[in-house]
Amino acid sequence: MTTEQTTSHAAGPGRVVVGVDGSPGARVALAWALAVAARDGATLEVVSAYPVDFYWVDPYLLDTNRLDAIRSDTEQRVHEFLAEVRQDPAVAAVPGTAEVETDVVVAGGAPLDHLVARAEGADLLVVGSRGRGGVRSTLLGSVALHCVAHSPCPVVVVHPGAMAPPPRVVVGVDDSPAARTALQRAAEEARRLGATLEVVAAFRPEAYWSDLYAITAPPASETEEHARARTGQIVAEVLGAGAEADVRVVQGAPGEALVERADGAALLVVGSRSRSRVVGMVLGSVALHCAVNAPCPVMVVHPHPATGEAVPAAAAAGTAPAPAPAPAG
Question: Where is the UspA domain positioned along the sequence (predicted)?
């Protein structure tokens, strides 16, 4: 099924959106999204965009036939790309991927705004870490960065990388509302994957310019114990007493600590403290660092646009991402 870009979308449960452009990154993202949709019984919306240049046959008429041809060619390429990924042995080995209902959506123009628009009312938006952009040295593509910053639903950036058994879901925690929601969502993902939940809290001892302040500063060991105790309290408050979680308290910058712990993980979940519509004011530094540098898929949980509080995990129940083997090639 193929549709054009529209302004309203179905609000029913079980819709996963994935952006594709034929790149290796898009191939991994599509494989990952197929596994999500297969597991959760969701519809998969495969979104692609084609460039719109103005082809004039005279000063007043737009050559719509040329644009229609570009659109048709893009549709065909997306369907072929989808078929190739479905037939990849690693993807076909995931139960249910062949039966996932898909809806191919193509639209003219830049993909950034189209993906964010299609994500309205969706349960999850999935993008590759890099697409077909010309700047190959960029760690996070412009489309992925835009989606992470502006998506109205949880967004997963899929980084190529091997998952080490047994599966782990890593989540970064502090005392913020966004981190609490990330913790709740991460626990749901861990249950669905049969994975261990690893809760990571990072601390940095204060560095004072004057040695006189060192008289009142607590030692690092005391700060670590306080952080461990507080993290345990947060886990109990959010997940309930007796919840199974592997609490890790590490010294260092939170972003770097999370990226290190995410090595070999099935998923890294982080909360974003804000989602601004102003370009340049997009993410907390930790969420951005993880989205750019993590060696595994990263889920960013955004605040509610009206209240500024984190989006409740229950709003996206049933659409947690699942790790899928990377397609061949």
Answer: 15-159, 168-302
